[in-house]
Request: fold
Amino acid sequence: MRSLLPALLAAASLLAGCEKKQPAQAPAAPATPELKAPAAPPPASDVILLGEVGSLTGAEATFGQSTHEGIQLALEQANAAGGVNGKKLEVRVYDDQGKPEEAANAAVRLINQDKVKLILGEVASTNSLAMADKAQAAKVPMVSPSSTNEAVTQKGDYIFRVCFIDPFQGYAMAKFARETLKLQNVAVLQDNKSAYSTGLTGVFQLRFAEMGGKVAGVESYSKGDTDFRAQLTALKKAKPDGIYIPGYYTDVGLIARQAQELGLKAVLLGGDGWESEKLFELGGSAVDGSYYTNHYSPDSPNPATQAFISAYKAKHNGKVPDSLAALAYDAANVAVAALRKSKSLEGPDIRDALAQTKDFDGAAGKLTLDEKRNATKPAVVLKVENGKAVFAASVSP
Reply:
C-alpha cells in the first residue's frame, strides 16, 4: 500500500476527535500508523484505486488500526499475485476519527475527488450508515468489514458486508446465555446514541424472552459518559444474574470496573464491540468471567484462518490478529475477487460480481453473501479469562 502516506497527510487536519469522547480513565489514543515514504507511483492506467475509511485515531482507534492492517495485508498479497488483470491495487485512506459526519465527508472525497472504484469500511455501524448514502447515490460499491447493524445494507444494492448482522449476533448471545449459562434474569445497559448498541439491545431482549428468560430492566448511557453508577445501581435492584452490555470496549471496561465497585455479581455479556486488547487494560480483573460474541477465534483449525494468522504475525512481529483485522482481510479479498471477475471496472459490474460471492473461504470463516448483501456465517462466543479472550462456543445460523 505505497500510496497510503499522501492520503494520510492530506487528511491530517481532520484528526481531531472520535465517535466517543475520550473517557477520563481511558489511555491516550494510539497514533496513526507510521508509514514509509512511497516509491514513485506507477502510471494511472496501471492502477486500480480503492478507498478505505476508518477510525485511525480516537477512543476506538484500535478498530481502525486493526482494520487497516488487515486490508494492507490482503492487498499486498493480491499485488504479489499479479493484482487484477495486471493492474496494481492501491488504496486511499482517510481517518474519520470515529465521527459519522467525517465518515460521510471521507466517502464523498473518495468518490468525487479520488475516483475510487470501491470503498472498504467502516467498522462502526453509525459511521457506515453515514457513508452508505453517499456510496449508493454515486453507484460506487462499498464493503463493510464489520458493521453489524441490519440497516447498513438496507441503504441500497451497492452496499455489502462480510460479517454477520445484529439479528443473528443478538440471537447467538441470547441462546448462549439461556441454554449454556442457564441465566434467567438478565438486565441490559445500552448506548442510546449508537445504532449498533440499540439494535443489539432490541434483538437480545426479544430472543431472550422467547427462550423463556426475563429481561430485568434496560438502562441507557450516552457516548462520552464516564460515570455509570446510577444506571448500574438501578439495575442492581432487579437482582439480575446477567447484564448484557452491547457497547464498545472503551465504555465496557469502565462499566465493568464500576459494577465491581458496586458489588454487582452478575455475569457480564456483550457483542463484538468488545473486541480489543484495550478491553483488558481498561477493565482489568473486572471483565474476567464475562462473555461476548465475535466473528472468529484464532484457535480455529480452519486452514484459511491459520494461513492468515501466520502471514499477519510475520508482518507484525508475532502479534496475533483480532477479529477486526480478520474481517478487514476478508473484505479486501472479497473485493479483489469481485474485481477480477467483474466484466469491467464500472460500478454496476463490480456490484454484480460482489453479489455472486458464494462459499468464500475467509480468515473469519466461510461466507456467502445473501440476497440482502449480508454474510451468512457462524458466530463464536469468547470468554475473558486472566486478561485474554478464549474460545467458549460456536453458534450457527
